[in-house]
Amino acid sequence: MSLFDPFEELQSLDLSSNGFTGIYENRAYDSFGSLRQLKMLNLGNNDFNDSILPYLNTLTSLTTLNLGYNSIEGSRTKQGLVNLRYLQVLDLSQNNNITSGSLTRLGLANLTNLKKLDLDYCAITTIQGLANLTNLQVLDLSGNQNLTTLGFADLPNLKTLDLGYCGITTTQGLANLTNLQVLDLSGNQNLTALGFADLPNLKALDLRYCGITTIQGLCELKNLFELNLKGNNVEGHLLNCLKYLSHLKVLDISHNQLSVSLSSTITSLTSLEYLDLSYNNFEGPCPLSSLANHSKLEVLLLSSTILVKTENFLPTFQLKVLGLANCSLNVVPIFLLHQYDLKYLDLSHNNLVGDFPSWVLQNNTKLEVLFLTNNSFTGNLQLPNTKHDFLHHLDASSNNFIGTLPQDMGTILQKLLFLNISNNHFEGNIPSSVGEMKELRVLHLSKNNFSEDLSTPFLTGCISLWFLDLSDNNFFGQIFSKYMNLTQLQLLYLENNKFSGKIEEGLLNSPDLWVLDISHNFLSGHIPHWMGNFSNLEILLMANNCLEGNIPVQLLNHRMLELLSVSENYLSGSMTSSFNLSSLKHLYAKKNALSGPIPDMLFRSSKLMTLDLRDNGFFGRIPCQINDRSNLRVLLLRGNNLEGQIPNQMCQLKSLGSIPRSFSNLKMIESLDLSNNRLSGQIPAQLIELNFLSNFNVSYNNLSGLIPDKGQYSTFDESSYRGNLYLCGPTINKSCNSAEEIPATKSKGREDEDDSAIDMVSLYWSFGASYVTVILGLFAILWINSFWRKRWFYFIDTCIDLCYYCLYKYVLNQ
Asked: N or C terminus of the chain: which is more exposed, having fewer CB within 10 Å?
């Protein structure tokens, strides 16, 4: 701090985002007192505690102070910040130990000139200690999840109030805030009692993700400019009165349950600049012609609404942002021919046909983002004749484009940051002009028919590239010769090509690599030991090649590697010499010639989830060092030379086999096939949240319990579940009340069934039939043969006498 002694006139000082942890030498911070002209001080994102507060009190000229993201508590201070009487802006956000009592101990009530106070994500439960802050205009209390008591009667001049994600259930306590203009209540999911009649000057209201269905007094807010109702359960009748909010400029009612067209309401809101109706359930088309007179409209988002009608009309607006994804379009809307100011255009997930709409780029010279993914565009990728200076994001993936890429592509689209043309039918070479895209960071070329020798210089000019996907093509030659200089590369996917030869050292020019997939090629030679030098490497996939020799010790000691796949190569040797993959979660090494004992460290790891060592030459016993915290879910050891007993510890593997509940996070998944495995347990109920699932198959496993019949699962028939004897429910006409007891053993998949496996159902029936046959045979013999009948009854009498004698002796001994 003595460095600042000469700067007595210093007015602004920023020390944020350093490693400061507190006051250790008092003299070091005495220099604060010499900064008498200092007005702005930023100490945010450090680890300061209360010991800094007395020194801050000497900076009496401060008007702005940032202490956010520190360890301030307010419990070990006598004066707090009481001397900072000129302070107008105070940021105490993300100090997790600041409580309601801390506000009093910090002396905030003495800061009468304070205009802005940020207390987001602290531990405040009630508003106290803010009395006398009559000049306060902006107050942020968001993220205080246990905030229950609201009272702002002492803050009459408050204009902006943020109560997002506070867990509040009512708006009571906001009365008398007649000057309030901006109110954020987003994320309060149990908010029920809503009333805004006492807030006549409100201009912006944020009610995102509150779960609300009704709002009182909403349409009386005549001065409202911005309304956000995203992610609620709002229905059409609630919004009928919105037509009277003539000043409304921003309206977001996306992700709701709207089914009735709002055309008449939207037509009246001619002041709109931003309109988002995405992700609703409109029963009929949303005619764009109803917006024809909205001359101020700049942002229009209608994704995932029914928009079949693309009327031929001449709009008065010039849009900057247009989102029409998943709107069941057949052709590109004609009105786009008259748009010249677009910066963002999303036409993805429609049924658009025809040629690539190069006229969109030609007309809109300021276009920055263009989404055309998952349509049916055909023909060549046609680009405008002139250089486009603004386009930085182009996604034309999953279409039917053919032919070669334009040779001047890299020159025309020189400013691209993101390019995705995967899943098409492009062929030929990658134009050398692509090397001129010096700002390109993400390049997707997978699932095409590109064919080029990558042992020659390739993409050498793309110095900013950090994601490269060339998978599922016909690229050949050696992988990354010494010419490659992609120093920023982090994710590289080269699987399913025709690469051959050894793995070249040119890959070392990308030291930050953390995902590498070179599987399903024709690579030969040894796995280079230097591959273990990628300090950030987490995923390494090399399966289905012709690699030979040992797995390098450097890889077996990698501290960051989480997934290693070397299956179906010609690898040999032992893995026991050194093994310390402390982060490993998935190891696939099937169908090699690996030998020796299975390393103990594999079973001691608590992170390992998948271990596949099938069809190798491992021998010895299965290690018994299974950690009691093991997360092992898949264990495959078939086709080795193992011996001895199966360890009892394997019975403690509670996670082995089951369908992960985390599959419910795959919100956009359309097909899920888990058939012919050894899965057990129940079908997770959370999977009913997969609203786009159209194909589901878990047949031939060992699943049990009730089959879900809600959501998309009501559309699947019994074929999705066959081969699971202990599933039940209406879908397969089997009552859960009469379901048989679930066995502890697991059945095999139909296609992977071992010849030596026992059919337990057949065993039970044959045992029962044999038992009945023996009993009937015994009765027949006794009925026919009198001698054996007498001997039988004599035997029964003897048994009864013996039992009586034993019982008598037992009673006497008692």
From this structure: C
